[in-house]
């Protein structure tokens, strides 16, 4: 009979398991589930199925490990994205688990379980009397789960971390209704949005609703005094409200009886002296019976909303050993009294709160009761140094974290009475480490002082007293000088990090070689130089060795590599090493997992092929060999030792000119390869996808790959998040298979030969895409007139294609998050829609938005919006009307409005351009005077006002633009003198146009985190760093007689001044010769007179000097021969005279066209010889009175009319046929109208002013 019943139960368990598997089909629309739980089939023993453990005696299921069913632990970003979008919810029925009567452990973490799990009977799991471990972490149960869990009395471990996908917009939960099961020992409620208080389950006691005690009788110490106390109470007629008895002195059971004074509004009229008797609930109890319920040992409440009152409610949880309340809302004083009740506490974390008051000395003394508390974290609070005195009462404190505590003072402080082993004071604003203020910590083993403002030389003398120091972290400070040799006195050191300082000098005689116990040495990002010491080869225990970003020279000693066989992590990047480095020196390093060598020099090469056929004993996980592989006469190849590597997670061989076919075998050999960078090599052929891969990051840019993009990408790289095929020779259309790469974040297909229309699916299916680059192809179509739905899109670059059509007004692009939009160099028409002016209004990067629409056919007024664009370029279009004064210019750095049809004055709103670097309003129809406030823009580097209708004189305020490098105010109607103060424009002191990055992570961030993860033993779980894209500024400036385009970094080095084609008069100020940094100076086509200033010989950097078409006189100064960089020199059409300078240096390259139009000049290369007298030919004054022919007036007038009529007819026909010429003609007419208008306006204004002056006089 028993066997028959057991068979029934086993069959019920089988059916339940198969139903659980069947429920996975509910999410098949969002995730491939066919391959999940393949062993769960309806035959065989289910105890042999995966994720199941059974009792070996009864055969019943005891352990169900159903966590991470969708393999999200490897890609947590997928998990969060699905959470936020509610796309994937697993409707798991909780009642299915009631069939597993002997179940002890149930793990359902890292799935997409939703509210169905609660509503389907979660509370009924209390029937599983043996269930001890329940893990529901990382799910998406939005409903309040806590009341349903109170009855699971058998639980010992409960993990609810991230159970509801909590974020800042999620609802919060009051857990006061949650009664902690009496047997629970471990509770994790990380990031659930909880508040309220925790209470133990009091199932043995009943609670009668009533008030808290009005007064409380002092607890007695011994049970023998109870009778005395009660007698005194009767004799003195005291009101008896409550009796608390310390349970340590009691035997047996104590009835839970509590007396309370009658509530003031409910006092009995006949019996006013009587008290109320309550059946007491758990809180306030001191009996043995209740204390048995308090078994909780570990409580993790990180990232919730608990305040300081919560700690008061924890005082009854005396069994707690670990308490983590980091990232909550605690404020006020350090809770010493409350914490002192938790006498079993071993670890306390109150970091990331708002605690700021040190308790009184008396309260601090209560901490002496915490004899087991060894670790305390108070990071990111606001205590001052008095908190140290309070913590000194902790008798067993070993580990203290005070990081990010800026109120502790600028120096370390005494810590008498604390026998610390670990002290973390990173990011605490420390500035010095005086010898007399170093705390007496004789047992200190770990000292972390990173990310402070410590300066001067390394304080080795101050640290010499720490004889047991094993780990020293002084990274990210401002230390200078060399490493003192006294570091060898710290002979116990195992970990040393001096990264990111300004240390310099050689490592010889520094004492490192005496640190025989050294395991980790990080000297990266300093200024060390010289050769690496040979004695480093004696550090046989060294595992982590990072000397990147220094100035080490010479060869890398082979003995250093051969002898350090314990190495796991090596980084030699960005130094000044020379010679050849044999990678085969690592052949016997069995533990090597990480190697990075990125070179910024051509003097060092890594030899990977010598000796031929060498086989490594290591299995690398991270390998970076960038710009360093030895160049071979017959072409470099992919390192052959990689054929023996099968555990690679990241491989970067970019910038090496490697040749041959794309090495697809790398993906085949390394199943877990997540990052492959083949950038900037010479790989040829077509892209072949033959093996399914787990690759997430694939960069093949900058090669010679031809053919088309494969159609079946999703089948071979389904997990891809970054895909870069840019700068190749790909042709054809963008395949529709690109739509199925649903995890794609970044797609770069720019700089190829792709054609056709952009498929609609690219902007509908790639819902997670953040960056899409299609620049510099020949794509066409109405791409922006469609309905777009890229809610997560931050960057869209469509520039330099053949796109046409209007831009959609009601597009569904969530422009609030769109940060960069580049549609330049296309054929878009119509007006700019208002959504473009409101881009990235909700973006984290709201101060870094960019809109580039240069060189299209857009027209109309530019719409105002909320966005303050950092980069706004709408030049070379047909926008008209006044420049809008409502544009938000708060964060604007680059403003390009040139080559449009804007009219009117420069708006006063430009006074708000306090951050602007580039201001281009050239090639418009702007009028009036140049505003003086332009000279008050403190950061302005480039000012382009040319080809407008500005009048008046050049404002002297422009002389205040000290940082300006390019100024163009040519082709206007400016009059008056050239300001002498222009020599104050000394040029920029620092670079500003290097690049404008829009990458998510940078390489430095990535490698720093790699090193950090190495220290905590999880180096290989990081996502790859994101490539840095750039938006480079571009302007046009006329120099060397040509309008040239300057883009990107060159703008930091280009300088010029163009005042040409105006009506400036007077002499050229000699002060202009003080512009020694200038490269181009153009004063041509004015009315300047006088001599050429001799001071121009000081223009040592000048390359182009144009003074043509003026009225300059005198000689050409021979001192100009000192201008050794001058390439273009134009003095034509002036009144210069005398002998030209000798034809030597740069003057030997100038032809006669540089001097033509100056009849009184002589000497080579002109034909005028300075040794002969030049004949002056006077025009004839004879007037011929005889006519040589007679004119037929009728024929003359007839032919003239016919010619005029035919000319006009042809002119109209041409304008009708050619819209471009028609546009230019209308612009010319409009310009003439404005010129006449302002001429008359100024004339009338002048006459009116003259009349007023005469009248007043």
From TrEMBL:
Listed PROSITE patterns: LRR
Subcellular localization, as worded in the UniProt entry: Cell membrane
Membrane-protein topology: Single-pass type I membrane protein
Domain of life: Eukaryota
One Pfam match: LRRNT_2
InterPro entries reported for this sequence: Leu-rich_rpt, Leu-rich_rpt_typical-subtyp, LRR_dom_sf, LRR_N_plant-typ, RLP_Defense_Trigger, RVT_2
SUPFAM superfamilies per the UniProt record, alphabetical: L domain-like, RNI-like
Domain Leucine-rich repeat-containing N-terminal plant-type: 11-55
Major site of localization recorded for this protein: membrane
Keywords: Cell membrane, Glycoprotein, Leucine-rich repeat, Membrane, Repeat, Signal, Transmembrane, Transmembrane helix
GO cellular component, one term: plasma membrane
UniProt keyword annotation of Repeat present: yes
Transmembrane segments: 1196-1217
Domain Reverse transcriptase Ty1/copia-type: 204-284
GO biological process: defense response; response to other organism
Similarity annotation: Belongs to the RLP family.
Name this protein carries in UniProt: Leucine-rich repeat-containing N-terminal plant-type domain-containing protein
Species annotation: Mikania micrantha
């Amino acid at each position: 009979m028993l066997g028959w019943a057991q068979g029934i139960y086993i069959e019920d368990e089988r059916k339940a398991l198969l139903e659980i598997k069947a429920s996975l089909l509910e999410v098949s629309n969002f995730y491939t589930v066919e391959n999940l739980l393949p062993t769960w089939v309806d035959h065989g023993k289910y105890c042999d199925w995966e994720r199941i453990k059974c009792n070996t005696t009864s055969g019943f299921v005891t352990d169900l490990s159903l966590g991470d069913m969708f393999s999200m632990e490897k890609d947590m970003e997928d998990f969060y994205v699905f959470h936020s979008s509610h796309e994937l919810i697993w409707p798991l029925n909780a009642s299915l688990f009631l069939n597993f009567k002997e179940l002890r452990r149930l793990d359902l973490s890292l799935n997409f379980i939703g509210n169905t799990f609660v509503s389907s009977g979660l509370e009924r799991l209390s029937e599983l009397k043996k269930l001890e471990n329940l893990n529901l972490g990382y799910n998406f149960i939005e409903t309040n789960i806590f009341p349903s869990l109170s009855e699971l009395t058998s639980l010992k471990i409960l993990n609810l971390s991230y159970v509801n996908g909590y974020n800042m917009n999620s609802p919060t939960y009051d857990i006061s209704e949650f009664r902690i099961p009496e047997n629970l020992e471990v509770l994790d409620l990380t990031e659930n949005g909880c508040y309220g208080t925790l209470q133990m389950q009091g199932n043995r006691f009943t609670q009668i609703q009533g008030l808290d005690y009005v007064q409380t009788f002092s607890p007695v110490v011994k049970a023998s005094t109870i009778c005395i106390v009660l007698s005194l109470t009767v004799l003195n007629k005291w009101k008896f409200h409550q009796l608390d008895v310390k349970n340590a002195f009691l035997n047996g059971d104590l009835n839970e009886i509590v007396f309370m004074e009658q509530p003031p509004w409910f006092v009995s009229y006949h019996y006013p002296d009587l008290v109320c008797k309550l059946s007491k609930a758990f809180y306030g109890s001191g009996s043995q019976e209740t204390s048995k319920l308090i078994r909780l040992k570990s409580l993790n409440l990180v990232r919730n909303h608990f305040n300081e009152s919560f700690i008061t409610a924890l005082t009854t949880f005396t069994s707690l050993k670990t308490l983590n309340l980091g990232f909550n809302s605690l404020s006020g004083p350090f809770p010493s009294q409350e914490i002192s009740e938790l006498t079993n506490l071993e670890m306390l974390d109150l970091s990331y709160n708002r605690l700021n008051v040190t308790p009184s000395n008396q309260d601090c003394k209560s901490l002496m009761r915490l004899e087991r508390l060894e670790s305390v974290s108070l990071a990111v609070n606001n205590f001052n140094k008095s908190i140290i005195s309070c913590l000194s009462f902790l008798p067993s404190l070993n580990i203290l974290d005070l990081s990010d505590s800026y109120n502790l003072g600028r120096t370390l402080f005494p810590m008498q009475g604390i026998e610390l082993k670990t002290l973390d004071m990173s990011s605490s604003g420390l500035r010095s480490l005086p010898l007399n203020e170093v705390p007496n910590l004789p047992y200190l083993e770990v000292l972390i002082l990173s990310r402070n403002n410590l300066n001067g030389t390394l304080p080795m003398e101050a640290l010499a007293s720490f004889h047991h120091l094993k780990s020293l972290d002084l990274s990210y400070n401002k230390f200078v000088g060399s490493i003192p040799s006294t570091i060898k006195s710290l002979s116990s050191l195992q970990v040393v990090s001096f990264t990111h300082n300004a240390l310099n000098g050689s490592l010889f005689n520094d004492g490192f070689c005496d640190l025989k116990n050294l395991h980790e040495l990080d000297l990266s990002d300093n200024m060390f130089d010289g050769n690496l010491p040979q004695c480093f080869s004696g550090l046989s225990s060294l595992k982590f060795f990072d000397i990147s970003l220094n100035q080490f020279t010479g060869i890398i000693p082979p003995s250093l590599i051969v002898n350090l066989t314990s190495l796991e992590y090596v980084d030699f990047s960005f130094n000044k090493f020379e010679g050849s480095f044999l990678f085969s020196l690592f052949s016997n390093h069995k533990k090597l997992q990480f190697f990075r060598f990125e070179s910024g020099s051509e003097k060092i090469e890594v030899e990977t092929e010598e000796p031929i056929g060498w086989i490594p004993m290591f299995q690398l996980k991270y390998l970076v060999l960038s710009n360093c592989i030895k160049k071979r006469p017959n072409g470099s190849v992919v390192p052959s030792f990689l054929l023996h590597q099968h555990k690679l997670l990241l491989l970067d061989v970019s910038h090496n000119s490697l040749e041959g076919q794309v090495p697809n075998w790398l993906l085949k050999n390394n199943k877990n390869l997540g990052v492959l960078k083949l950038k900037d090599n010479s790989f040829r052929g077509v892209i072949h996808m033959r093996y399914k891969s787990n690759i997430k990051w694939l960069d093949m840019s900058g090669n010679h790959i031809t053919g088309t993009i494969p159609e079946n990408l999703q089948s071979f790289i389904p997990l891809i998040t970054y895909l870069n095929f840019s700068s190749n020779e790909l042709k054809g259309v963008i395949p529709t298979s690109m739509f199925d790469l649903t995890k794609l974040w970044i797609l770069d297909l720019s700089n190829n030969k792709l054609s056709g229309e952009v498929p609609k699916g690219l902007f509908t299916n790639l819902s997670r895409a953040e960056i899409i680059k299609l620049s510099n192809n020949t794509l066409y179509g109405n791409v922006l007139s469609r309905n777009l739905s890229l809610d997560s899109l931050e960057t869209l670059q469509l520039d330099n294609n053949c796109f046409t059509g209007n831009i959609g007004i009601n597009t569904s692009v969530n422009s609030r998050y769109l940060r960069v939009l580049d549609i330049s160099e296309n054929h878009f028409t119509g007006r700019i829609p208002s959504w473009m002016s409101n881009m990235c209004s909700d973006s984290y990067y709201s101060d870094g938005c960019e809109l580039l629409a240069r060189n299209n056919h857009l027209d109309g007024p530019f719409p105002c919006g909320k966005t303050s664009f950092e980069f706004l370029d709408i030049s070379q279009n047909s926008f008209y009307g006044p420049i809008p004064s409502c544009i938000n210019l708060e964060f604007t750095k680059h403003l390009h409005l040139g080559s449009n049809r804007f009219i009117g004055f420069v708006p006063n709103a430009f006074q708000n351009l306090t951050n602007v670097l580039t201001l281009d309003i050239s090639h418009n129809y702007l009028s009036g005077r140049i505003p003086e406030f332009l000279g008050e823009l403190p950061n302005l580097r480039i000012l382009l006002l040319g080809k407008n209708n500005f009048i008046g004189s050049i404002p002297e305020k422009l002389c205040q633009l000290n940082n300006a490098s390019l100024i163009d105010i040519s082709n206007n109607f400016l009059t008056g003198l050239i300001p002498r103060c222009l020599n104050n424009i000394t040029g920029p002191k620092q670079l500003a146009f290097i690049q404008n990055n829009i990458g998510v992570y940078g390489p430095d961030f990535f490698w720093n985190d790699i090193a950090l993860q190495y220290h905590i033993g999880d180096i290989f779980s990081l996502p790859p760093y994101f490539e840095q894209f750039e938006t480079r500024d571009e302007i046009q400036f006329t120099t060397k007689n040509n309008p040239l385009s300057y883009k990107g970094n060159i703008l930091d080095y280009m300088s010029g001044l163009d005042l040409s084609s105006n009506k400036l008069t007077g002499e050229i100020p000699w002060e202009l010769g003080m512009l020694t940094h200038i490269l181009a100076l153009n004063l041509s086509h004015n009315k300047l007179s006088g001599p050429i200033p001799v001071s121009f010989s000081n223009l040592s950097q000048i390359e182009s000097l144009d003074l043509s078409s003026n009225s300059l006189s005198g000689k050409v100064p021979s001192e100009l021969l000192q201008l050794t960089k001058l390439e273009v020199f134009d003095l034509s059409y002036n009144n210069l005279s005398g002998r030209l300078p000798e034809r030597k240096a740069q003057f030997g390259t100038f032809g006669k066209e540089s001097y033509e139009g100056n009849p009184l000049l002589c000497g080579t290369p002109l034909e005028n010889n300075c040794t002969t007298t030049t004949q002056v030919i006077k025009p004839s004054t004879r007037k011929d009175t005889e006519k040589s022919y007679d004119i037929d007036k009728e024929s003359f007038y007839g032919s003239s009319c016919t010619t005029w009529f035919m000319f006009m007819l042809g002119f109209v026909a041409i304008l009708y046929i050619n819209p471009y010429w028609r546009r230019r003609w209308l612009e010319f007419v409009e310009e003439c109208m404005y010129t006449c208008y302002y001429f008359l306006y100024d004339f009338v204004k002048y006459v009116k002013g003259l009349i007023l002056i005469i009248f007043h006089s």
